[in-house]
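Render this sequence as a predicted structure.
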Amino acid sequence: MAISSDSQFDDLIPSSADTEAATQSRSLLGILCLGLYFLFTLMPDSHSIMVAWPWVFVWQLAWLCPVLWLVGQLWQRSPIPRLQQGLDWLAALAVIGLLLSTILAVFPNQARWYTGAALGGIAALYCINAWAQTPLRRQRLLVTQGIVSVGFIVTSLFLWVSQTLLPELNRLQSLQQVGVQASYNFSTLELRNWAPFGHQNYVAGYLVLALPLLFGLGWTHPRWRWWWFGSFGLGLIDLYTTSSRGGWLGLLVAGVYLGLALFRQQGLNRRWLMGGTFASLGIVFVLVLANNRLSSQISNFLQGRSGGDMAYRLITHVAGWKMGLQQPVTGMGPGSVPLAYQAYRPYWAGLEAEHVYQLHGTLPQLWAELGLGGIVPFVLLVAWLVWQGGRYITRAATHQSNLLPQSLLAGLLGYSFVSLTDYQLDNIGISGFIIISLGCLAGFIGTTSEISPAQTNASGRPIRSMAGVLLGIVLAFGISVMPIHAAWQLSNQGFAALDQQEIDQFRQRLGDAQAKVSWDPYYSYQLGWNLGEMGFKTKDPKLRNYLIQTATQHFIQGNQATPDQEFGHTNLGWLYLQIDPQKATQEFAQSAELVPAKRGVFFGLGLSLLGQGQTDLAVQAMTLECLRNPIWITSPAWKSPPLQSIYAPVLANLEQSYDQLLQGHQHLDDLNTHLHKGRGSLQWWSGDFEGAQADLDTYGSPLSRALVEVAQSKSGDPIEISPELSKASRNIIQAWATPDQRASLLTQAWQRGTGTKETKQLVQITLDSMQKARIFQEWLQDYPIVRKYHRQRSGFGVLSRHTDGPNPTDFFLVIDNVVMTEIFNDMMPVPEYFPDLDRALQERRNALLSEVEAISENAMLTSSLIQSGAMD
């Protein structure tokens, strides 16, 4: 690629020093470092693959190579150039903060694992800066990074179009052929551009760093301007497909800085710059408005409404603040967030952000894991970038300046804004880009002081000693992580055996992995869940009992390693429910304290209390389940023998609870409306249509009022259907009222309700059930369409930072009334995030859990006395 010889870019003209440096032997470790960085940047789904064997070994090699590279440079008695301008002090602060946090970490093994990666990143920064000391090398490195960024953009668009866009367009087209109108919806997470990192926020974060660099390369390389600016435009399209708000705002920050930098440049046509600026803003404005997710969120913001994403971040930030307060100076240690998060998650969070592995914000993440030791260097680094940006703009007014360093500053400043809304430093593609940008920027900003041969020789022994110390640390670290990699490999072999139904080999391999790394709950949980799943499925009573007993032991081991995991306590509770209801009560109570709104937790608690003869407490627990998950009262599960006897008491207690809550919350707001709607829908389901009408005529939805009317109508009576109802709801009600058109109406209803054409079997089952019923309410309650399933723990592997094994499901068997959950779900909505509701329920939860704790303590004391013979 040609090098611009414009006088404006003299920094890019090779000097004698450049030529001499270019002819020196290249570092194989440096080439390997860059190769691994490029690999994890372009490899599809790299952020998930890097925590699967053997890629986790390659990931760690990517962080060890810079340290070995640094050791090699020191061993050759080559003093490492300083970053200068205060960056060395920031690096020293970061290293001290990491080491102190690791020493005092709550989970020391996980802390050492992640600290090694962080220190490797700091070593990479010094190595990049040392290598890129000449303008020619800096340019070559940035051009290479630009080419990789173009490859990233092309890969991202290709994978998204081929694996997400086209399949979804084909699905929508097939629905349109049967009269169901739908459009591509960027509000659906799975439809946004995830490639190649696996999540749209990572893609957007990378693009905020890459787009300013592409712009700078286009500006400084006139002969290749068409290539770089064309890639820049393609990158904007790629950013559009991510639908990332943080990405667009970060790009706006970067664009404002670059615009100021260009306007301050001497010798540029201000009129052309102004026209280009307005044209660029117009393009960005059109792209944002063309995206239905971004345009709707702008509309909601202007109307003062906040969406679920804002709630998600509020919850994680609050949890991160609480975690950091435990150890304000050092935090809880690197890697502690996914293990301790649920203990600090606010109870009013509802169903949002139940489990995370990062807090969706760099500040809360650093505060939680590193305390002030992480916050201070980060804030100072952002301040340093702002200061340097101001210096460059000021100097541009009086000097011709190269736009490349300013494009790096623009990318880093823009990414600083992105980092406020997401934490992405665990992604090699992004952190590597930041390291390259900072390393080159340090070279642009200041020239390293020359070191005389005398100084080099005099300092040779200390430098080699430092290299020896670093090499010793690397070797010690390598030895310490060998059991971790051995366990990872064993587990990978075990899961391969599980796929082949070789159960004994699976148990042996996972058991060996758990023995090597007992502090990692993943292996214990996978053993416990898989054996428990086999136990529930087998028909042999003895084998079932053995497998469940064995599974409980593995879950206990997992909970001992990380005591604040709702997944472990909940599923251990379901296992204990088969053999020891008293212990099941303790586990469900623990889950209820961690995630009180989790669906099925209070129901499981009620079942365990029922198994101990504590009927009144069981009714209270199940009432709390239905207050937060009201549609559960429509489940056919209540017809089973253990629950049939307490169904009526639960409904009565539920109505009484609604009355009490409304009495204590009489002023009109969303909570008052929700409570009235909940009571009205309960009365409708119970057959009290007059009471239901009193609540739902005022507070209900068009669907709830229509269902009350239909429930009171007789067979053959004409039914007026409001056009405000969803098409699927209208089709179901019309199908009931017009038997001669049922088949076609039910086909349309289920196609709209399920979003698929394959509904033939579902339509036939609905036809059969409608023919058996005399009235609408009888059809819904006595002849329901039943679906049984176990809720998937989506993202369990990603959240656990292990993706070799299967994603577990809960042992809790969910039994749905499909018409209610899929078509009429607005009758009894289950809000994901409703802080006022959870605050109103928390006092009742705490009171019940206190009673349960007292009973459990008495039972344990009695059992202890019996075993000791004191009660003989």
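Summary. Residues 1-25, 448-458 have pLDDT under 50 and may be disordered. The beta strands are 786-792, 809-817.
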